[in-house]
Design goal:
By secondary structure, this protein is of the alpha+beta class. The protein has one domain. The protein is built from 2 helices and 2 strands, in the order H-E-E-H. The protein has helices at about 15-20, 65-85; strands at about 30-35, 40-45. It has a two-stranded antiparallel sheet with strand order 1-2. GO terms for molecular function: DNA binding. InterPro entries: SpoVT-AbrB_dom, SpoVT-AbrB_sf. This is SpoVT-AbrB domain-containing protein. Keywords: DNA-binding.
Length: about 90
C-alpha cells in the first residue's frame, strides 16, 4: 500500500512502482472513482487490452493448466494474507 500526499493544487504523484504495475506513463489517461458512501478511491487505467501487450516478460517455458492454477491459488492466498496484516 502506498501513501500519497495531496499538494496545494489538489494533485498527487503516483509512485513509479505503481505506474509500472499499472502500465501507465506520462500522458496516460486514468479513471479515478469512489463508491457512494466510501472514502476509498479506485484508480483504473483507460485503454484497451492491446495496450498491455508486451508488458510482461516472455515465460521461460510454457506452463500446464495445473501449474497455472497452482500459481494463481498461491498468489490469491498471499494477497488475502497481506490484507489481514494491514
Amino acid at each position: 500500500m502506498e501513501t500519497l500526499t495531496l499538494n496545494e493544487k489538489g494533485q498527487i504523484t503516483i509512485p513509479a512502482s505503481l505506474r509500472k504495475q499499472l502500465g501507465i506513463s506520462a500522458g496516460s489517461q486514468i479513471r479515478l472513482f469512489s463508491e457512494p458512501g466510501e472514502k476509498t478511491l479506485h484508480l483504473t487505467p483507460t485503454g484497451s487490452i492491446k495496450d498491455a501487450f508486451g508488458i510482461l516478460p516472455k515465460p521461460k517455458k510454457a506452463l500446464t493448466i495445473e501449474e497455472m492454477n497452482e500459481k494463481m491459488e498461491k498468489a490469491v492466498a498471499e494477497e488475502v494474507m497481506s490484507y489481514e496484516r494491514d
